[in-house]
Amino acid sequence: xxxxxxxxxxxxxxxxxTLPLRAQAPQDSLAQRQDSLAQRLARAEAAxxxxxxxxxxxxxxxxxxxxxxxxxxxxxxxxxxFYDGARFNNDDVPQWLAGSQDxxxxxxxxxxxxxxxxxxxxxxxxGQVIGADVTADLQLDFFGGEPADATDRVxxxxxxxxxxxxxxxxxxxxxxxxDKPLVSPQLPVSFAASGYPEFAGSGNLWGWIPQARVTAExxxxxxxxxxxxALDPLQETDAxxxxxxxxxxxxxxxxxxxxxxxYLGWGSDEGASDIGVGAHRAWxxxxxxxxxxxxxxxxxxxxxxxPVALTAEAFSGQALGGLGDGGIGQDIGPQGQLVxxxxxxxxxxxxxxxxxxxxxxYGRDDPTDADLTTSTGAVAAGARLRNVTFEGHLHWRPGxxxxxxxxxxxxxxxxxxxxxSANQVNGFVGVFF
Length: 433
What we know:
Elements: H1 3-22, H2 30-61, E1 71-84, E2 110-114, E3 119-129, E4 132-141, H3 150-154, E5 159-168, E6 172-179, E7 209-219, E8 222-231, H4 239-242, E9 257-266, E10 273-285, E11 291-305, E12 308-318, E13 340-350, E14 356-367, E15 386-399, E16 402-415, E17 418-432
Antiparallel strand pairs: 1-2, 1-3, 1-17, 3-4, 4-5, 5-6, 6-7, 7-8, 8-9, 9-10, 10-11, 11-12, 12-13, 13-14, 14-15, 15-16, 16-17
């Protein structure tokens, strides 16, 4: 709203307030006319004050870049409280149960809180350049670092989640930045688990990886797309299984990881749906002359029918820790063998109204047991043979960006000695802006 428009509206309000005075009957007393005029002037002044507050609010909300590009700032201030029924690998946003529970006599259960899943986003849209719509987006949270105790969890630094620069033509787009793997593009709904996304370590290949991506798409109401990407060949090596963890053996191969995905899409906005299949390949350096292969075949879907959304991913491959805890974060077994694994997740989310949302899901990662055994044929100490997560969530958005909700998760992690099971209950309140 511009100031001249507001001033004009105020003038009209003042004129409208005074017009009835001219129509007053001659028999009205002077005192009555003065009282009526005072009331109308008071209403006009109140209207002007409201308009001035709106102007000030808009001026405060306006963000300009040095190059005058449109900038949008968004985010979520999020406060979580949690109860853990056992000792997990990570207290506030767990992925699997710890193999060794506290044997000192103290409880393994615990409660706590966190704000480090608070998020901040900055989106810049410079307009058209070389015939393409240009968009740059940066998403941050405060989940940086691995806290050694609850005090450290309060002082965690900012962290880049995703960041991308995209050039989009009518049927072609090019993206460079940091994002999920091309072959696992879907994201579960969760406000209890976003520092590590829901089902991380139990079927969700979530890792945010530097990459360059090209997408070619044809069609209108129904679209067919083909994507290809080159990624930083990040590789996670579990020191508990392979002895001393070497410097990243993916980057030491001197080759980028490559991925491809074919998808079918339809719908738009909140009703956008797609089904895809993909393939991943990365090379891992060894002390010999050859290389080892991190590879996977994947499938994914996101289908929206009215207020109901079904989202799922599945994969089968080996040495997938670099994609975000594939193989429950285990790449290389105790005898140097690559850990083969298969897994996936599915979630049903229902949003009958804007205010209410609920649903649940299941995730599973199941490495091949033989790849986690020692030379004696025994499963290595601490090896995670299977990890399963069940989750249910309920969200309420009463308005004004306010979010209130709760999420229940049950974890089942299998070790050589058997299956450990425990629950986490997470309650949260936040404000979107």
